[in-house]
Amino acid sequence: MFKVCLIQPPIEDFYATALRNIPLGLLSIGAALNKHDVQMLDLRYGQSHIIPIPKELEAVKPFYRSNDASPFSLYKSYSRFGPEVRQIADLIPADADIFLISALFTTYIHEVFEIIFMIRQNNHSATIIIGGSGIIFNPEIFLNNGADFAILGEGELAVPRLLDELKQAQPDFAAVPNLVWQNDGVIYKNPVEIIENIDQLPFSDYNILGTPEYTLAGKRHAMTMASRGCPHRCKFCSIHQTFGTKYRLRSVKNVLMEMDKKIRAGFRSFDFEDDHFGGNKRWLTQLLNEIIARFVDYDLSLQAMNGITVTNLDINILQKMKLAGFTSINLSLVTPDQTRQNALNRPFDTRQFTDIVHSAHQIGLKVTAYIILGLPGDTVEDNLQSILFLASLPVLIGPSLFYLVPGTPLFDELAAQGEIPNSVRCYRSSYFPYERPDFSRESALTLFRICRIINFLKAVGDYNYQPAGYRLEKDAVIIPAGLSGKDSQITLGFALMELLKTTGKLYGTGKKKGDRYPLVEESCDLKILDKFIKYSQTLRLIQKIHPAEF
Predict the structure, then answer these.
(1) CA-to-CA distance for 272 and 306, rounded, in angstroms?
(2) Does pLDDT of 549 surpass 70?
(3) Where are the domains of the chain?
(4) Cα 22 to chain center, whole Å?
(5) Contact 150, 143 (CB under 8 A)
(6) Could you name the CATH architecture of 3-47+82-189?
């Protein structure tokens, strides 16, 4: 029996979404290591502190401000999400035999190297294994920086097999599927196998020693996956490198068994992180029917935060989703332009998307539509039209800035054109790495802000929020003393919308002084703002919330 430590490293970025960072892969592999003494070290959970922006990322400094209280602000400070480097050495167990480190995104590999270095300083004889989607582009770099092994693709069968070999006097590493290893300076990559029958896998174990208790809206929360793989080959997506293109479903019975076990342990919130959730309509219908029949008394909250394609949705499915515990759905749109969808190899029908949005709205399901801004081949006008299309529908907009994912067709195309930054730190979404003459970083972030504005206008209109009263001065917004939280943000939003309408410029705020918020003009593409302001749906949204002034 080995002492195994599972590690999710910290990350350094302008933002991190806590509930999307649950280490599901580690929790699943940890469950498969039940013959060993396993503990979890989630170094990304529960703390953050501001750190200096790396030199490679300084180009985004003009767009992010820590003191901006505007509801339309972007990211604020560059932070480390996790303990400081000097604290990590005290957290890493000195007696562990095996360390399994998750590397999910290429842009964060420096934080992985940092963990490897810390382990080597404190535990020279331990075996270090790296896994996750972030290693696929270049697993050799991890072995050349102190790791002993890397696992490509799924690890629930490969890691236990590797540990079995490590017990042997003469281990046969060539027999371990998915393994990257080295011998006498030569690196070998074993064939990658997918797990055909995913019902055979143990359920992810949230009771592994050291695992935090993740919660959402006061409920104990778990990620799960009801399927693996995706038959589609979207040009910006690399998931097929981890899970393949064969769509593999767990049986409905198996999913229900996991939910039942976790419900008995106190879980009341579940996020299905499938990459193709609902890809089989009959299966989805059966699952929802069984959840309704078995768990209706537990007040479950269900989500599919990774996004759902509309292909297999209809009004009956939506009604069952609501009864099962969904209060909202996230639809993976990317773009409503059919030509662009075809170019990106996406299955999509704009009319079906619109029908599903209206059906969901009709029965009281909130909808967020995911779009990507700045994809290669997109123009600023393309993206603006996508945003304005969504402004006319009862949806919130979930924008993402295009980022670089090694191994995707888009990455390979850009690499062939010499368009890839030298530093992997620049691959991240918050940097908008693919800037070009006709699509600047300023334009991309202006579009991002417009999405925030539309979401604000819809929210205050839907909930009939009212400002607490404000006064505009030449260089500041004055709001009533004592106003804070949501009330101050709503009031500031009304004031800043008035300025946008009258000046054509978007303002944020500086550091608050008493009841005074200094005005700071944002770095925006004024041509885009002007088109947005003149768009009729924008005017209707403004009129809906603020008829007296507009």
Answers:
(1) 8
(2) no
(3) 3-47+82-189, 198-448, 462-545
(4) 11
(5) yes
(6) 3-Layer(aba) Sandwich (3.40)
- pTM reported for the whole predicted model: 0.94
Helices (H), 326-440: 338-343, 350-363, 380-391, 409-416
pLDDT tens digits for range 261-302: 999 999 999 999 999 998 999 999 999 999 999 999 999 999
CB atoms within 10 A of CB 514: 7
Query: For the segment 26-67, what is each residue's pLDDT rounded down to a tens digit?
Result: 999 999 999 999 999 999 998 899 999 999 999 999 999 989
- On whether the CB atoms of residues 102 and 142 are closer than 8 A, the answer is no
Distance CA 114, CA 314 (A): 48
3 state DSSP class of 391: helix
According to CATH, the topology of domain 198-448 is TIM Barrel (3.20.20)
Question: CA-CA distances (angstroms) from residue 98 to 126, 231, 315, 441?
Answer: 6, 35, 50, 43
pLDDT digits (tens, 9 = 90+) for 508-541: 999 888 889 999 999 999 999 999 988 865 666 6
At 372, give phi and psi (nearest 5°): -115, 130
Edge-to-edge order in the sheet of strand 149-151: 37-42, 3-8, 98-102, 127-131, 149-151, 179-183, 186-189
